[in-house]
Design goal:
By secondary structure, the protein is α/β, with parallel strands linked by helices. 27% of the residues lie in helices and 22% in strands. The strands form two sheets. A seven-stranded mixed β-sheet has the order 6-13-12-7-8-9-10. Strands 2-1-3-4-5-11 form a six-stranded mixed β-sheet, sandwiched between helices. A hairpin with a 4-residue loop joins strand 12 and strand 13.
């Protein structure tokens, strides 16, 4: 049984950290303001606005900042302000002794997939794959996707709808939801953080990859057994895909369809988890019901 961290109430504190890529401080200020408008206090880590080349600080700085937020009893949730790359460089050095005794919601996506998968695999603790600081800018705090984060933090059970897609395979399942960024899921294969997918609804999304890379990564998931005994597959949005000089001859969705057609579980395409605005908050390790028909798709938290 997955351990679900306590939900938040007004007056609780959300820690803001950058465990991976650099984020200018001003790009996080709207996020801080909106979180406060929601009734939360905000504790800003030293890595927000800090920079060490690509990263939001040295490995040691990022490790120390995140460790302090994980251990801080006055912080009820940790929102990772940005993904990018870098969490995998510090994951083995993090100490979760205090955290597993008093879990809290870790929020983020993209490179934060590493944290979600690690916490679920090693400690069976749920995470929140959800919008980060940049999503709050340009009135983003008012859209349904950022609002879905607020509802998730307050413990309101979600029900998301998705339009039908020509590649969908109909079906209805109830199972734990796992997944995240496809590149990170593949990179975690063979590590102690690799997520278990058997009997689960797996969701995947990605950005800025060559189409052949998507094809290669799907074969890697297949060959490592990660696609074999799924309850279902949710294919999020694959945005800003690139092609080679000699065209690959397929889209990312085509590549995924070609791999998954051999399985008999339900598959949903074009669901709103992504690197774009359309990015619903979903809880990793938590049970959802996925219902796919020719007319609509629904994902309902149980």
């Amino acid at each position: 049984m997955t351990i679900v961290p306590p939900y938040l109430k007004k007056g609780d504190t959300i820690g803001l950290v950058c465990p991976a890529g650099y984020l200018p401080y001003q790009q996080a200020t709207t996020c801080m303001q909106v979180l406060q408008q929601w009734g939360f206090k905000v504790k800003v880590g030293k890595t927000v606005g800090n920079q060490s080349n690509y990263f939001s600080g040295t490995d040691e700085e990022r490790l120390t900042d995140l460790q302090q937020m994980l251990d801080d009893n006055t912080v009820q949730a940790v929102l990772c302000a940005r993904g990018g790359y870098g969490t995998g460089r510090i994951i083995e050095a993090l100490d979760f002794k205090k955290f597993k005794k008093k879990p809290k919601w870790i929020i983020g996506f993209s490179d934060i997939t590493v944290l979600h998968c690690h916490l679920l695999k090693r400690y069976n603790i749920a995470g929140l794959h959800a919008p980060m600081a940049g999503a709050f800018n340009n009135d983003g705090g008012e859209n349904e996707y950022v609002q879905s984060l607020k509802k998730a933090l307050l413990g309101k059970k979600a029900r998301y709808l998705c339009k039908p897609h020509a590649y969908n395979i109909p079906g209805k399942v109830t199972a734990p939801l796992v997944g995240g960024n496809l590149s990170l899921l593949v990179h975690l294969t063979g590590t102690p953080s690799a997520v278990s997918t058997k009997g689960c609804i797996l969701f995947i999304e990605d950005i800025g990859e060559y189409v052949y890379n998507i094809d290669r990564m799907m074969y890697q998931l297949q060959r490592s057994g990660k696609l074999e005994r799924l309850a279902a597959l949710i294919v999020g949005k694959f945005s800003d895909m690139k092609d080679t000089v000699i065209p690959f001859g397929a889209t990312a969705e085509d590549c995924i369809k070609a791999i998954t057609k051999q399985y008999d579980y339900p598959v949903c395409f074009n669901f709103s988890v992504s690197h774009q605005i359309e990015n619903y908050a979903v809880k990793t390790g938590v049970v959802y019901q996925l219902a796919i028909t020719n007319k609509k798709v629904s994902l309902t938290e149980q």
